[in-house]
Inverse folding.
């Protein structure tokens, strides 16, 4: 197991049981390449629908902000 995956699992262990189950379902889905197993919730759907036109216009978060978030999250 990689160090990054170990860090992710350690963080998941800190979450409430319901969150852990949701995160586990996502991991299983991604590992099995079957994204349909975990349908997005309404908030995620709304964020996707809001973000798609922005992405099509080339409106992305600047690399410096992404780097800050990665550093904050230990990535």
């Amino acid at each position: 197991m990689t160090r990054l995956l170990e860090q992710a699992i350690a963080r998941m262990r800190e979450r409430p049981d319901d969150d852990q189950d949701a995160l586990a379902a996502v991991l299983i889905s991604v590992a099995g390449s079957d994204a349909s197993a975990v349908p997005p919730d309404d908030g995620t759907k709304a964020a996707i629908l809001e973000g798609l036109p922005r992405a099509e216009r080339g409106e992305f978060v600047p690399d410096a902000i992404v780097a800050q978030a990665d550093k904050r999250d230990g990535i």
In short: The chain is about 70% helix and 0% strand. The helical segments are 3-13, 17-31, 42-56, 63-72. The mean pLDDT is 88. Residues 40-75 form one domain.
